[in-house]
Amino acid sequence: MNAEQLLTQLNGLKAVFEEKEDELTQLDREIGDGDHGVNMKRGFNAVAEKVSDGSAQDILKQTGMTLMNSIGGASGPLYGFSFVKMSEVAKDEIDNDNLMEMLEVFSKTVGDKGQVEAGEKTMYDVIVKSANVLRETGGLRLKDLQRLADETEDMIATKGRAAYFKEDSKGTVDPGAQSAVYIIHALGEGAGND
Ligand code: ADP
Ligand code: MG
């Protein structure tokens, strides 16, 4: 995936999050404050509007800054800062090996900044296992990523707003885990995976 293809994938997330707004809103209504759908839509609308041509590194950095300034909530700084950090390892031509490095940085950044571990029912549960999916399956198929988000359904949240729901957070997929599926899928598609 070169810089132009990367930009196409990131711009494409505008339509994805427009389509998935209701789904994410619904999940965040169950175990949060119901704003995750609108937050993600606003973030990737801003990316499509503001991020301009440049190197892959420039594009990822601009995307991170734009997400930080537009998503808001707990997820804004986590996604925003992650894209900034991924820009530091991205190559001009992002192949699956480089994508693996980027996913590892994505997961380390969210883990450090969110002070979160696997099993706490957050976006981290999808992000941390995505590099493994790529390694084991040679791709980032939607159904494999979706399985990771679905695994959060039975977890009890211990981070973020969902933690206030304690046991009652069981039975709902984490909204951030669901949005992470779409972001990682888009990056994988750009690198030639389906
Ligand atoms: P807010 O919770 O402030 O309303 P959003 O609704 O946009 O923000 O995002 C909620 C998502 O953010 C959660 O579903 C979860 O995946 C993620 N999240 C919240 N806190 C953390 C954290 N400490 N570490 C990792 N992810 C988190
Ligand atoms: Mg919310």
In short:
With 194 residues, the protein is mainly alpha-helical.
Largest sheet: none
Given helix and strand content, the structural type is mainly alpha
Whole-number tally of structural domains? 1
Query: By CATH's scheme, which homologous superfamily applies?
Result: DhaL domain
Mean pLDDT: 96
The bound ligands are: adenosine-5'-diphosphate, magnesium ion
- Low-confidence stretches are none
Report the span from N to C terminus: 13 Å
Keywords:
single chain; 194 residues; mainly alpha; Serine Threonine Protein Phosphatase 5, Tetratricopeptide repeat; 9 helices; globular; binds adenosine-5'-diphosphate; binds magnesium ion
3D architecture notes:
The chain has a single domain (3-190), classed as Serine Threonine Protein Phosphatase 5, Tetratricopeptide repeat, CATH 1.25.40. It is built from 9 helices and no strands. The protein has helices at 3-19, 21-31, 36-50, 56-70, 75-87, 96-114, 124-137, 142-150, 175-190. The radius of gyration is 15 Å and the shape is globular. Magnesium ion binds next to loops. Magnesium ion binds at residues 28, 32-33, 35-36, 73, 161.
Topology, please?
Blueprint: H1 3-19, H2 21-31, H3 36-50, H4 56-70, H5 75-87, H6 96-114, H7 124-137, H8 142-150, H9 175-190
The structure holds adenosine-5'-diphosphate and magnesium ion.
Magnesium ion (MG) binds next to loops.
